[in-house]
Specification:
Blueprint: H1 2-59, H2 65-82, E1 85-90, H3 103-117, E2 125-129, E3 132-140, H4 147-150, H5 158-167, E4 181-190
Antiparallel strand pairs: 1-4, 2-3, 3-4
Helix pairs in contact: 1-2
Bound molecules: heme C.
Length: 191
């Protein structure tokens, strides 16, 4: 009688410890992934912006379009081959169809748009989805330079507009205003 009870207690405590061990170690992994993603995004963002703004200054926006279209996939590939994860940019108003968000990404972007309207500061969003750890880092259009290619017709010079329209006939990435949500860096870790 006593032994049986004792046995049950031992089993319950073993199971409980296992449960905590598993949940705790998951939490540590998530934090690790999150921190790694944050630093990768920082590098990605800086590399892209530095090259883009330098190009605009040296040869004008109309001759800098390829910086955005060629450099970002190159960075994405470089990062993906170095680490066990993928990163890309997504946007509901995308210029390149490769940046069209999936359902999960769309939901995060729509929540952020609501939060921005309510005057909230956006924060990184992460979730485990089908054996993947997914992270979304917001991209808010916070630099006037961006408007030279993503602003209104008056803000984009005619030559640039012509080139953009020729290359992206279904372009949705225009008429943005400063402070609006432009999209996100969307990362996925295999777990
Ligand atoms: C010289 C023109 C130019 C400037 C300036 C520019 N972009 Fe872009 N942007 C593009 C082009 C072209 C694409 C499509 C790239 C591709 O084909 O992958 C793009 C794509 C993007 C995307 C991916 C989603 C999509 O629409 O396909 C984001 C996000 C983005 N730009 C944000 C920005 C931000 C933020 C700035 C300012 C820091 C900026 N861009 C400045 C030309 C520009």
């Amino acid at each position: 009688m006593f032994n049986k009870k004792y046995d049950t207690l031992v089993w319950v405590s073993i199971l409980l410890s296992l449960f905590f061990l598993i949940t705790c170690s998951k939490q540590v992994d998530e934090e690790l992934y999150l921190n790694k993603t944050k630093s990768v995004v920082q590098v990605f963002k800086t590399e892209l912006q530095t090259n883009l703004f330098r190009a605009i200054q040296e040869r004008g926006a109309e001759n800098s379009i390829e910086v955005c279209s060629e450099l970002s996939p190159a960075i994405e590939e470089k990062i993906a081959s170095e680490n066990n994860f993928k990163i890309k940019r997504v946007s509901e108003k995308f210029r390149n169809k490769n940046h069209e968000p999936d359902e999960w990404e769309k939901k995060v972007l729509q929540n952020w748009s609501r939060e921005l309207k309510d005057g909230k500061k956006l924060t990184v969003f992460s979730e485990i989805q089908n054996a993947e750890y997914r992270v979304m880092n917001p991209i808010v259009l916070d630099n006037a330079n961006c408007l030279q290619c993503h602003g209104s017709k008056n803000e984009i010079n005619p030559k640039t507009l012509e080139k953009i329209q020729a290359k992206y006939p279904n372009d949705k990435a225009r008429d943005f205003k400063l402070g609006e949500l432009r999209g996100a860096f969307s990362s996925r870790w295999k777990i």
